[in-house]
Amino acid sequence: MSELRSALDALAADDLFELTAGQVLDRTAVLVQLGNRVAAELTRTVRHAETTQAAEHDGIKTMRSWLIGHARLAPNDASKVVRAGRALEHFPVLAAGFADGHVTAVQFGVVADEVGARERGLAAEQGIDLSAFDQDWAVVAAGSRHESLVSAVQAFEAALDPDGPEPDPTEGRTFTMVKHADGSMTGRFELDAAGAEKAQAAIESIVQADRPKGDERTRTQQNADAFVQLCDNQLAAGNLPMLRTVKPHVVVTIDLHDLVDPATGPGAARTGFGATISAARARYLACDGSISRIVMSPDGVPLDLGRDHRVVTPGLRRAVERRDESCVFTGCHAPSHWCDVHHLVHWVHGGETDLDNSALLCERHHTKVHHGFRVERDPGGRWRTWRPDGTEILLGPLL
């Protein structure tokens, strides 16, 4: 183990800028293979630890729990390592490819996850020799794209139980959301093929409909924006199930003096699910929302609750949609139902809530305008957009 650590230290000390492009790619390929070998050895070691109950040495009942608590693996990743370890003895050819680095941990996991004790039992009952599949899957894993192995394993499962009941797709669906201290969120989901097709169709429709000129977002950023837009559309539609007697909506609480003070920094407002956001972000959300006044006593007890006031009335929104038709930010044509009604001069600073002071902006460009960009309607009725440095965004001829 000390020699392995020394070798890794030596690799980390290499100056990659001294390598040619070909050398960098060769190095990458070797590191991928070595990473596979390390993952295989981890899997073998975890399996040995499980069979010998080594986790009891640290007072832990299972290796899954030990990996989560001591190695800080995510619960799902810990489960995958344990399942892979249990599959090693049943698929020796695939395991050998894993050990020499030609099969990845994810590829071996495909077989370990999908061909477990139940499937092996069905194969034995039907006289199916798994060794032939073991050899074929090893060849596919080492020489084809990852999706090819997935398809091969799925075909085996379908043939194994062709007349069995159609599984409930919801049983395998998971969607985990983890909220961080700053209110941001990371997540992970797993969907069956039908559910994945629905999700991909919904996300792709928004991604492909929102491709303004000069868009430099990565595909993952486009997907994330589309996911938020999908939620925004559904919330705006107003047909989601009631949440504790009210329609689900975004809630932001902020002191009035923080809301109107343009110099207020971060941490001035709090969302309904407990995140802390800046006053600037609160002003952005307040551009097109409902406002409720709550008068508090010095000791924090509510004294007076004012009724909700809709900043932008339905009638005004219809008028703005009729005039603008889509997002007015130069180069963007996001449809009106994706857009907020933006106050050119914010209402907290005396701006009127009327047609002349309103503009349709999609979620992404509404954020841009609240962070330095500016939109303005010229006397001829044409919308123009300026960058934070004062230069105008102009659409040139297509090349």
UniProtKB/TrEMBL annotation:
Gene Ontology terms, MF aspect: endonuclease activity
Pfam families reported for this sequence: DUF222 (PF02720), HNH (PF01844)
Residues that span the membrane, as ranges: none
Gene3D superfamilies: 1.10.30.50
Domain of life: Bacteria
Domain HNH nuclease: 315-367
UniProt keyword annotations, A-Z: Endonuclease, Hydrolase, Nuclease
Similarity annotation: Belongs to the Rv1128c/1148c/1588c/1702c/1945/3466 family.
Protein name (Swiss-Prot/TrEMBL): HNH endonuclease
Species, as recorded: Modestobacter marinus
